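Q: What structure does this chain adopt?
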Amino acid sequence: MSADPQAAGGFRTALSGLTTRGRSFFAAGVAAAVCAYVLGQPDLLRVGLLLAVLPLVCVAVLYRTRYRVAGSRRLAPSRVPAMSEARVHLRVDNVSRIPTGLLMLQDRVPYVLGPRPRFVLDRVEPGGHREVSYRVRSDLRGRYPLGPLQLRLTDPFGMCELTRSFSAYDTLTVVPRVEPLPAVRLAGEASGYGDSRTRSLSLAGEDDAIPRGYRHGDDLRRVHWRSTAKYGELMVRREEQPHKARCTVLVDTRRLAFYGAGPDSAFEWAVSGAASVSTHMLERGYSVRLLTDTGSSVPGPEGGFGGDSSDTAGVLLDTLAVVEHSDGGGFSRAHDVLRVGSEGLLVAFLGDLDEEQATIVGRMRRRAGGAVAFVLDSSAWASRDAADPYPDVAAAGSSVPDAPAAGPGEDDDASGSSPDTGVRRAVRMLREAGWTVLPVPPGEGLPTLWQLADRYRTREEAGAGS
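A:
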């Protein structure tokens, strides 16, 4: 990007750039000239003309000065987790044949990233450059525009300032915080944690092979003669298909399911948890898909899963950086997406659930090899001073409690007026549907809950086997 002091506007625009000093000099000169005319003092008239003409000369010189400067911006990094800093590097190059005067740089940044940075640069020689940098930080995820960069030109006497703006800007993506999770083995992982499995169709029986039409270049030794005779065209056996374990991360974005806002709210914890699980599973070789209650699926089209792990991780994090509350009230659309077939491991981050929505979420268990749900009581998160309503979840560093095998009505008190009765009922309904459910106390860390989910699931499997 480049800027030209003569671009956009004429001499009248340059006059509007007079500083307070320049306006004061011009006003003093005009006043002295008027007094000299009234009093008949020619010496005073010369002084008045000098004071009045000096700002105009500075404007003309600054306006007619022909030099061009080019500016660039570099973000390090361009994608940063929330509550972390990124550094912005600015570079100004003098691409003209004459040196510049005093320059002041100002970059436009959103107020959530910090104060607007300003820099003063001394004379830049022809072909030279100057580099400056500043830091930005955001506690809130999102996409924030940086720029355009503004350049202020001033004369040596400080009589006039001209402001020119570059046209280019950059975008800083603040993604949710990602916590490292321990390597555990949850349900739905028949061959180990993230192992790539090969489904060898060639080992099947002659009648079980799934053929396809012959294509140019196929090996004739793979011709399936029985199917060729049946369909009347040349058919070949399919090649061995690599099969990767799948994981679907479901995020509840319903507005009515969460209370409060800010980086420490229940909704932000759920978004950060979804980012942590997605990144963790991709690192273990899984094909990961992000699904919301609205039925939108990322990254694959029509509910498909992502391919390359590095590209998929970037797409998922960028999506979670801008995810907002939805106005929907149910999981029907998400349930329809999961009805395609087996979804492997299903990990859900849920807010407040009524009985109807708990029933719909419970049905999702039938389409997954394993299902783990983290349920957040947003009212408990909104009031941090409330007592811990989840006695069956251990705090960080404490001993692991027994497997939560709650019976009907066990979670409800006698009066039925407990403030977390609705949440407890939803937790019980999901457990009865086959989910491994962990209520999330305010401020609890996901790594601890992730380990508990594995231990709970192991005990559930052992209980079912006995």
